[in-house]
Design goal:
This protein is mainly alpha-helical. It is 77% helix and 0% strand.
């Protein structure tokens, strides 16, 4: 059980690295660009988590296994991208799996360093969404967490399950399994059924757009 958080962390690193590398392949980046995106997507959330709880240097920098796993996933994706792309919605699946793994490890590590339950849940969410945000920013896209169906909410749910299980002193393995399954399933269900939070809209935006267009082209008014 002592090695379980590290195993989950490395698994999440690998899965998010696949997600980042595959996104780079789809944008036709070169090998270096794919590997950079692979490392950034896989480790940004963990680095943010470690810096916030005072673990310096962060695990992704201090432990060569994080870099090795990230580069390995990037090379696999670069060399066998046609095979991986043929999977059903591979980026979304890898991203959902990485989100679940990192949300769980983020909350667990926060609790291990003495953070209160609320902040442990928040840090679990930050760990889960960090890699995907950096990946999207590097690709000049709006981060998935700001536009997708129940992305951060799924990470919050997984982190909350871990924290509640810890407070109730429940066995670690079942709690982690339930948290992983809940986050992954919620994310996939949200994608399938397009569940999402309310979207910001400006009332009368359509009328304002018409008036603006007319002001630019008086002949149409």
């Amino acid at each position: 059980m002592e090695k379980l958080p590290l195993a989950l962390d490395l698994t999440g690193t690998f899965v998010f690295a696949l997600s980042g590398a595959l996104a780079g392949v789809k944008r036709e980046l070169d090998l270096f660009g794919v590997l950079v995106l692979s490392f950034a997507a896989a480790n940004s959330g963990g680095i943010t988590r470690d810096l916030l709880i005072g673990v310096v240097p962060p695990g992704a920098v201090a432990d060569w296994r994080y870099l090795g796993v990230s580069l390995f996933a990037g090379i696999i994706t670069f060399c066998f991208s046609p095979l991986i792309v043929r999977l059903s919605n591979p980026v979304l699946l890898f991203d959902a799996a990485g989100l679940a793994l990192f949300a769980v490890t983020g909350a667990s590590k926060a609790l291990a360093h003495g953070l209160n339950p609320v902040m442990a849940i928040v840090l679990g969410m930050v760990t889960g969404i960090g890699g995907g945000m950096v990946r999207d920013v590097l690709l000049a896209e709006i981060p998935t967490v700001l536009r997708a169906e129940l992305y951060a909410v799924a990470a919050l749910a997984a982190a909350a399950i871990v924290v509640v299980g810890h407070m109730l002193r429940l066995p670690d393995a079942p709690v982690i399994a339930v948290a992983l399954f809940s986050c992954f399933t919620l994310r996939l269900m949200a994608i399938k059924y397009r569940w999402r939070l309310p979207v910001a809209k400006i009332r009368g935006q359509g009328d304002a757009g018409v008036e603006k267009a007319r002001s630019k082209d008086p002949e149409k008014s």
